[in-house]
Structures are given as structure tokens and as C-alpha cells.
Amino acid sequence: MEKKIVLPGEKIGDGMIRAHNTYFDGTATYAAVIGTINEEGRYIALETPYKPLVGDTVVGVVTDARHAGYSVDIRLPEEGFVPTRTIKVSLQLGDFVLCKIKSVNEVGDIDLGEVRRLPPGKIVSFPASKIPRLIGRKSSMIELLKEHSGGDIIVGNNVYVWISKGSDIPLMIETINMIKKKAHKSGLTDEISKFLQKVK
């Protein structure tokens, strides 16, 4: 199926569709920036920065620890903040964490909650507009990567991807870069599957 280019202001579908870089006028959802409709019929914005939404799952790194709480790098101009009173775990500088965005105010301050400390590993960045491709339809792509990684992988909405220490990190980085370069192609999951089977 050939991908369709969607221009800003063009209708994506009837009703409310929860997707980044879209807006809802009460009856239908429209593209806010140029993008494409992929083979699964989903709208994907092209090369746009991540915009935080309440409820998003994000991967981050603790950059500061104070009595009031923790600052977390989540690949945005403003760091996220975890109030100490809202969590039961104690965090340290450099810890990898998985969080939910609880609130975003008008000046961009972000409060995080539902914090989970991640084991040692590596974080790589991935374009926000291509995150749906990395996850795949019904999580098919990310499950494929996990199957061949030897460990675990978590994809945040905020363009950070955590790869566990026990994974084949060089292979996963190579594969993730392939997905990044070929995100516009149809049949990519099958192509990646054949690549990983050949390597193994």
C-alpha cells in the first residue's frame, strides 16, 4: 500500500483520534503538521519534536536529587520533576526510570508519577515521529526486538529507548538505526525479522 502524504489541516479521520501533532474540532481529527498515513492506516508526523501529553509513558535519567524531589532528563528543554512525597522508592543520580506524565503546565513544567526504577542498561534516542514504527502494529516490532535481544527493551513516548544490560546492545542499536532509516517502507517488520534471523 502506497503511503499517503497528509498536509497540515487535512482530515485524518472521524471522531477523536489520540495522536501527537493532531487536533480535534468536535467531530473529526486533523493533522497539525505534515505527515503520512502508514500501511496500518495510522497518521505519523514527519520529523517533529516530541510534545508531552498527560498520560504519556516516558523513559528518563535522574539528573538531580533534592529533599523535595528528583529532576529527570526526559529529552525535553525542561526536565521532568518527581516529588518525593509521591513515590516509595529512593532514587540516585544516574538512575534510569520509567514514569508517567501527570501534568504539564502553561510554561512547560512537567510533573512525573508512577515511577519505576529500571535496571542498568543503555538509553538511545529515536525520532518522536517514528516511535509508532518502532513499536509496530499490535507491538509486533518491539516484541520482535525483545525476542532477539536476549534482554528487555522499553520505548518511551519521549524518544528515549532503554535497552537492558543483558541484551545484545550493539545488535539492538544497529537494528534500531535500521528501523529509523527505513521507517517509511512497507513490510519493514518482515525485513527486520529476516535480518535478525540471519545475524543469529
Description of the molecule:
With 200 residues, this protein is of the alpha+beta class. Helix content is 20%, strand content 34%. The protein contains 4 helices and 14 strands. It has helices spanning 131-135, 140-149, 169-181, 188-199, and strands at 4-6, 11-14, 22-24, 28-31, 35-37, 43-45, 57-65, 69-73, 80-83, 96-104, 110-118, 121-125, 153-155, 160-164. Strand 5 (35-37) and strand 6 form a beta hairpin. Helix 2 packs parallel to helix 4. The two termini are 30 Å apart. The model has no long low-confidence stretch (mean pLDDT 89).
What's the arrangement of strands in the largest beta sheet?
A: 7-8-9-11-10
Largest sheet composition? 5 strands, mixed, barrel
Instruction: Quote the distance from N terminus to C terminus.
Output: 30 Å
| Averaged pLDDT | 89
**What is the number of helices?**
4
Q: Which stretches are low in confidence, meaning pLDDT under 50 for 5 or more residues running? A: none
**DSSP E strands, number:** 14
The CATH class designation of the largest domain is Alpha Beta
Order of helices and strands: EEEEEEEEEEEEHHEEHH
Structure class: alpha+beta
Can you tell me the CATH superfamily of the largest domain? K Homology domain, type 1
Q: Percent helix among the residues?
A: 10-25%
Report the CATH topology name of the largest domain.
Answer: Ribosomal Protein S8, Chain: A, domain 1
> How does the overall form come out from the CA principal axes?
flat
Counted up, domains total 3
Q: Which architecture of the largest domain would the CATH scheme give at its second level?
A: 2-Layer Sandwich
